[in-house]
Amino acid sequence: MNELGPMIWRIFLAILAFGVIAQQALVTWGSLDPSPSFQGWALFIGGLLVLIESIAALFTSANAAAEQVRLKSAEKVVLASLKTISDSTGIDLLCLGGSVFLAKKTGLRQREFLHRELRYRLSDVPQPSDVEWVKGKGVVGSAWKDKHTVHKDLSAIADRYGASELNEASFLRLRADTRGGFTREEFHSIIGKYAEVLAVLIWNSAQTSVIGVYAIDVPMTAVHEKSGTLLNEHPIHEIASSCASLLGDVLQKK
Q1: At what angle do helices 36-89 and 4-28 cross, to 10 degrees?
Q2: Residue 1 has what pLDDT?
Q3: Tens of pLDDT along 62-78?
Q4: Average of pLDDT values for 70-92?
Q5: Closest CA to 144 of 108, 102, 107
Q6: What percent of the chain has pLDDT over 70?
C-alpha cells in the first residue's frame, strides 16, 4: 500500500492545528482582535481536528488488526505448501523456506520494489538476506520482471563463490547471469546460502495483474540427493503455483 497519502494527510492536519494555535496565541498576546466569532471557530476547528485524528486512529487500528489476520492466514498457506513438498520429496521440512513478496511503490517517482511480507521456515538458518528486490534481481526479481515461474540451481555458484570475497573489478568480470543483478555486497551476503530457489507469481483474484512473488528455497546445508534440482519438477511447480493462487486471494487488499 502507498503510505504517502496518509503522511500528507497528517501533515495537513498538523499545519491546520498549528494555524489554530498560532492565531490563539496572537489573540493572547493582543496582536489579534479576539472577536467572538473567531473564538467560536477556533474551538470548532480544534474539536474537529481531535475528532478526525481519533477516527483516523480507529481506522489505523482496524487496518492493523485485519493485516495481522491476513498474514496469519498467508503463513498457514505457506506452511501447507512446504509440508506438501516435504512429504512428496522426502526432504526435511526444516530445510525448506518460503517467502512472500508483495509489489510496492515508494517515493514521489513511485519506484517499484518487492517488500517481503512474510518469511516462514522452521529453522533459524539461513537468516534473511539484506537485498533490495527489484525487477530482474535474483530469481525473485527475474520472475517478477519476466512474469513467469523461475527456478535456478545455485549450488555450483555457491560452492565456487560462497566463501570468497571478490573485489569490485573481479565481481564485474563475472557473467551477468552469475551476478544475478546483485550489487557486490548483496552477492556476497546471499550467494553462499541457497542451493536452489523457485519463484512463482502471485496474481490478484481476477488474474489480471501480478501483485507479488512467492519464493521457495533449499539451503546449501540441506542433505538430499536432488539438492539443487529438487524444486525444478512439475509437481513441485504445481504445488507452489497453487499456494501462490491462494496467497493472491488472502493478501489482496479489499
Answers
A1: 160
A2: 44
A3: 576 677 888 899 999 99
A4: 96
A5: 102
A6: 74
Give yes or no for residue 43 having a pLDDT over 80: no
| Residues in contact with 166: Cβ distance below 8 Å, sequence separation at least 6, in sequence order | 174, 184, 187, 188
One-letter amino acid of 44: F
SS3 readout for the chain:
CCCHHHHHHHHHHHHHHHHHHHHHHHHHCCCCCCCHHHHHHHHHHHHHHHHHHHHHHHHHHHHHHHHHHHHHHHHHHHHHHHHHHHHHHCCCHHHCEEEEEEEEEECCCCEEEEEEEEEECCCCCCCCCCCCECCCCHHHHHHHHHCCCEEEECHHHHHHHCCCCCCHHHHHCCCHHHHCCCCHHHHHHHCCCEEEEEEEEEECCCCCCEEEEEEEEEECCCCCCCCCCCCCCHHHHHHHHHHHHHHHHHHCCC
pLDDT tens, position by position, 219-250: 999 999 999 999 999 999 999 999 999 999 99
Amino acid, single-letter form, for residue 149: T
Residue 75 corresponds to which cell in the numbers above?
503463513
pTM to 2 decimal places: 0.76
Read off the amino acid at residue 144: W
Confidence check: pLDDT of 160 > 50 = yes
219 within 8 A of 125, measured Cβ to Cβ: yes
